[in-house]
Amino acid sequence: MNTKEFPNIELFTDGGAEPNPGKGGFGTILKHKGRQKEFFAGYELTTNNRMELMAVIFGLEKIKTKAKVTVYSDSKYVVDGIEKGWAANWERSNWIRKKGNLVLNKDLWERLLDVIDKHEVSFNWVKGHDGHLENERCDYLANLGINSENKIKDDGYLEYLENIEQYQEQKIEKEGDLCRKCNTPTIKKSPKKRKIKQNQSYYFEYYLYCPNCKQMYFIEDAKREAPSDDTLF
Predict the structure, then answer these.
(1) Same domain for 89 and 156?
(2) CATH number at residue 15
(3) Of 4, 41, 170, 230, which sees the most CB atoms within 10 A?
(4) What is the pLDDT of residues 78-122, one digit of tens each?
(5) Where in the sequence is the domain holding 216, given as residue range(s)?
(6) Residue 146 — pLDDT band, cuts 50, 70, 90?
(7) Can you tell me the distance from the alpha carbon of 120 to that of 132, in angstroms, rounded to the nearest whole number?
(8) Cα distance between residue 151 and residue 44, in whole Å
């Protein structure tokens, strides 16, 4: 079966939370050869971005055979996350960001990448609340979810709340604080040469250094006032 024989399916999505974070919902529409199916669900406590992701995931997981799927979403977070390669880069980095904290919504990004691999998927951004027929309908469905009585627990978001410190940037302030990249205790090192940029009013007397991954941290406590020209002679 070649690509041309794959069914062409359109997937329209929207999601939100009121307030954010708060009760949430998503709406999803699948269209193929003039047929249309609609879905929605509500969650007890979640975020806008998680609902936008869930709308796409839910729709893709409903497709029973390999297909060529065109996704339409008003979420730049979701569309750019895939089309600009952010999610693929996060996966290659084991879901750890450059500063050592975990990627937000890791559970849903993993799930989205897994289901994308089963199809040929492209993403298109549409402007929300701008009269786009299917987007407006998905917004209506998402609100049905938000206002539904039988809401689902968003276990991924609850787990995030329990481990929130892992997602927030760790502060490196003193010797012994753990490196944000590899969790190795940092040590204090002095620069071989004092570097003061032109028009810079300070320099760093020392910095914190990771002996494992070689990461350097320049901290506020190490900052010193640069000598003025009349104190140099």
Answers:
(1) yes
(2) 3.30.420.10
(3) 41
(4) 999 999 999 999 999 999 887 778 899 999 999 999 999 999 999
(5) 187-231
(6) very high
(7) 24
(8) 5
Token pair of 126 as six digits = 């549409």
Residue 214 and residue 118 share a domain = no
For residues 16 and 48, the answer to whether their CB atoms sit within 8 Å is yes
Q: Is the same domain home to 148 and 220?
A: no
More confident residue, 232 or 32: 32
Q: Three-class SS of residue 18? A: strand
Q: Is residue 181 part of a domain?
A: no
Residue 45 and residue 113 in one domain = yes
Count of other CB atoms within 10 angstroms of residue 155: 10
The residue behind tokens 């951004």 is: 125
Both tokens assigned to 230: 């009349």
**CB-based contact 72:14 (threshold 8 Å):** no
Number of domains observed in the structure of the chain: 2
pLDDT for residue 233 = 30
Q: How far is it, in rounded angstroms, from Cα 156 to Cα 23? A: 14
In a domain, 182, yes or no: no
Domain assignment present for residue 177? The answer is: no
Across the range 193-212, mean pLDDT stands at 77
Domain shared by 98 and 141, yes or no: yes
Q: What is the pLDDT of residue 170?
A: 67
Tell me the three state secondary structure of residue 136. helix
The catalytic site residues sit at 14-15, 52, 74, 129, 139
H or E segment and range at residue 60: helix 48-62
| Cis before 19 (ω within 30) | yes
CA distance 96 to 101: 6
Helices (H), the chain: 48-62, 76-83, 86-92, 106-116, 133-146, 155-162
